[in-house]
Prior knowledge:
Elements: H1 27-39, H2 45-48, E1 52-57, H3 69-82, E2 86-91, H4 104-121, E3 126-131, H5 136-147, E4 151-155, E5 162-164, E6 167-169, H6 173-183, H7 189-196, H8 211-221, H9 237-256, H10 266-278, H11 284-295, E7 298-300, H12 302-310, H13 326-331, H14 334-342, H15 358-364, E8 387-390, E9 399-402, E10 412-420, H16 423-429, E11 442-445, H17 466-470, E12 477-480, E13 492-494, E14 514-518, E15 523-526, H18 530-539, H19 550-558, E16 578-580
Parallel strand pairs: 1-2, 1-3, 3-4, 7-16, 10-11, 11-12, 12-13
Antiparallel strand pairs: 5-6, 8-9, 9-13, 10-14, 14-15
Amino acid sequence: MSTKPKNDSQPIAESGLRKGLTSYGDKGFSLFLRKAFIKGAGYTNSALDRPVIGIINTGSAYNPCHGNMPQLIEAVKRGVMLAGGLPMEFPTISIHESFAAPTSMYLRNLMSMDTEEMLRAQPMDAVVMIGGCDKTVPAQMMGAASAGLPAIQLITGSMLTGSHRSERVGACTDCRRYWGKFRAGEIDEAEKDEVNDQLVASVGTCSVMGTASTMACIAEALGMTVPGGASPPAVTADRIRIAEETGTRAVQMAKDGLTIDKILTADAFENALRVLLAIGGSTNGIVHLAAIAGRMGLEIDLDALDKMGDETPVLLDLKPSGDHYMENFHDAGGMATLLRELKPLLKLDAITVTGRTLGEEIDAARPNFKQDVIRKFNDPIYPRGSIAVLHGNLAPGGAIIKQSAANEKLMEHEGRAVVFENAEDLANRIDSPDLDVTAEDILVLKNIGPKGAPGMPEAGYIPIPMKLARAGVKDIVRISDGRMSGTAFGTIVLHVTPESAIGGPLAHVRNGDRIRLSVQNREISLLISAEELAQRIKDCPITEPTAERGYKKLFLDTVMQADKGVDFDFLRAAQITGKTPRK
Ligand code: FES
């Protein structure tokens, strides 16, 4: 039975269903019309007077990493209603790594725009954003950061691991490992197909510390999830309980006016960067954090981040830096155990979605117990932070290397450049028996940066040339302006800035040049004189890529470099007011 309506001719309060009324020139009529339509779905006035909690549904047949979306939404709604709110589910773009061409990164900013504009356009007092696969969580946080309302992140959760001939396997480090074995002729076609059935054992995100798991941990470190929200696997009761709690929490955030700017502070980003280093997280985490921070008017200071690495050991023993999988991280206590180890290094006063500080949440978490996945601070898996920032004449704007997943010997290396002009050139020649390459050389791949590909694909994980792979070579120094999947490993220099497509020095590397990599000295240098480099730049002017229309035009005209998060320039905060981490 319908309850008595509030007098709609009274001044319109800016909350709930009364927020953001459609423009008809008469607010009372706008609300009258809106209520008439929603009542067509059977809602009562009592329901419509409650705080409205938007729930972003990113379920898609093209996105198995979000395959538990229906159960999560049901649990979030339950949580919202238990707390007296009105849940309103709505869709946005969903992006899966393997189903997005040319690359998921190309579409991340589009998803962030969709998220931002739907949060602005539709009436809601708070929003629960459900994401999981690599680009979805950063896209949602970027959009919410710009929209500015109370927002809470719900992670879909990791997939389960599988078993191949009694060996435990999981996406996607083992996908790469088995593909490498196949390329090297160590397994045959039949075994390749057999393992393909086992690598992804359930719905959910990749089971190692790839970008999705990294962003889940980062979201919790930022204070954007309920405590413990990063680690429960997708198909567990723990994940569903987190979903219910998230819905309940969203209602309180709406009532308290706990907007996202109170959470995404410089201190929160510092905590997130600290966690990124300590978990051996994906290098993509830096790009995404730079983009989210840019929306809040903050710039990531890469040199300060590098310094942070000196005092932040890798504590998490997860693939690809270690041995375990996300479900083991969860069993070991998840982020609470890790944060407790890092506590002396964290900004404990940072506010989280609970309205309490990160320090208070760490103190309130369940006590530690014996486990072997999250190491003690003084017994790390790797003594320094997982990511190092490099400079030199090859990367005046910086480059990065995931040192915890690299080969110790190759991190101090000088070699001859074997150059590929673009991804197509690489595909055409990398497996040629005639390729002039040895294990001592350095592979250079150009034109896979933000504008080059476009969309900065994860092609930085250049395959070992077939003839070297067959000879047993497992690693070789590789350099590009692209990205690498968080699940990959090797001595791989990424995000060379500025990229070659806009005329960065990388564009002017030639076959046979000598290159020096010294992670110890944070150096990546092309060993030619400044005069020679200047002459090459003069001789070969670069024409930047353009497009005639559509999203590609928007992308190529406005995308920024890796150090700015590969965001569009017009989406960044109008003013950059500070840097994080602080030196
Ligand atoms: Fe979705 Fe790895 S492909 S998380």
